[in-house]
Amino acid sequence: MTMGRKRSKAIPARQIAYDSTPIPEAANYKHLGIIQSISGKYPNDIDAVKQTIRGTFLFLSQKVSGRSGANPNTAIKLYKTAVIPKSLFGCKLWNSISIADMQQLEVAHHFCLKRAQGLPHLTRSDMVLGLAGMTSIEALIDLQKLAFLGSLCHAPTGE
Questions:
Q1: Rounded to 10 degrees, what is the CA torsion of 63, 67, 73, 78?
Q2: pLDDT-derived band at 13, boundaries 50, 70, 90
Q3: Per-residue confidence at 46, pLDDT binned at 50, 70, 90?
Q4: From what superkingdom does this record's organism come (predicted)?
């Protein structure tokens, strides 16, 4: 079953067949590693993105830390170069992310930055971003969207 443009009423699902073999319609599917949903909600599971941010950072920081812990500059560089690209893969397509979902991503972002700098849990988030020289995760996602738009605008036409 698919929803109409305004999602006000349900439209019955069409039965698609190939050579008299019915092709079932799935609610979710994976394309290039990104889980797509027929509801149009991106990302499909915000908890998975949040766990990717935290889990990847904690795993990598454990591997690079010595007896006295990792250097904060090294941990932040690791976060910028490995964790952010992995967890935000496909964020260019997140056109309908809710405010609550974005806030959950910000919490995970601040958690990792506080851990990277060795700051207490109750440190103000704006201070953490400033000390790390980073912006909010919403700004990082917007930059990815703008870069994608720029690549579409500069793409050669199919003439």
A1: 0
A2: low
A3: confident
A4: Eukaryota
